[in-house]
Amino acid sequence: xxxxxxxxxxxxxxxxxxxxxxxxxxxxxxxxxxxxxxxxxxxxxxxxxxxxxxxxxxxxxxxxxxxxxxxxxxxxxxxxxxxxxxxxxxxxxxxxxxxxxxxxxxxxxxxxxxxxxxxxxxxxxxxxxxxxxxxxxxxxxxxxxxxxxxxxxxxxxxxxxxxxxxxxxxxxxxxxxxxxxxxxxxxxxxxxxxxxxxxxxxxxxxxxxxxxxxxxxxxxxxxxxxxxxxxxxxxxxxxxxxxxxxxxxxxxxxxxxxxxxxxxxxxxxxxxxxxxxxxxxxxxxxxxxxxxxxxxxxxxxxxxxxxxxxxxxxxxxxxxxxxxxxxxxxxxx
Length: 333
What we know:
Metallo-beta-lactamase, Chain A, 10 helices, 14 strands
């Protein structure tokens, strides 16, 4: 008897694209699934590696979708933040697949540098407040990671090209396929307000800029959103939130680009008026100071917020989300 398909929060966006949600972040499988009862594995690529808790889910979904002995032609990273590379070491142990990223991400993927720290003062919202608990540490996958081709082509992804979309990180990239105008945007934009636990738990769909607490160059982020808007995508698949499809996608992205300063850029924060300074190799050489009082406030809020956030997320993922009577957080939180 054939085994039942595995469903780990997997959603098909096209015949050859699937999204897998791991807690609050997405990974993407690009490649046509193998046909049932045919043993030949198919060629495919994984885009981003989510959180460490998702390694088993990703492996099981890959085996179900492409064959039990299949491995990706490549793993593409939109950037190297902890929630996009968390499962990477476990996946590499299983697959030994080459990893590709922008050359400005290399210091953070080869053990030579850590990212600039997150900013808990950036705006109201519980996840922003708890961001000092998030890791800014780089990883070391030297020997496995390679620079993306400078001509914009995508290893293992014919018909796709990568586009530099710096701001969230200086080496951030987004992926675009002209034939069906599909955009995998990473964290250049999000389709939920990532600073808010309410939005993250409910997956309330609204197009936003990059996660504010980890964005280190807001002028670059604004230009990146304008670049993506010029593509007029029909599908926007992001690192956080549900995909946006149809004419609404291009319309919402265009309006976000036009109104970026009001809708996306915070009014205050460590990197809001002065970006982190990065050299040509991707190393941070200067970053704005943040007041000690703000750090203490953020750390204190982190402890209380982490307790509340963990409780809410635990209830949600057990299938018993809080009722409207007990859900004390506002949509700003």
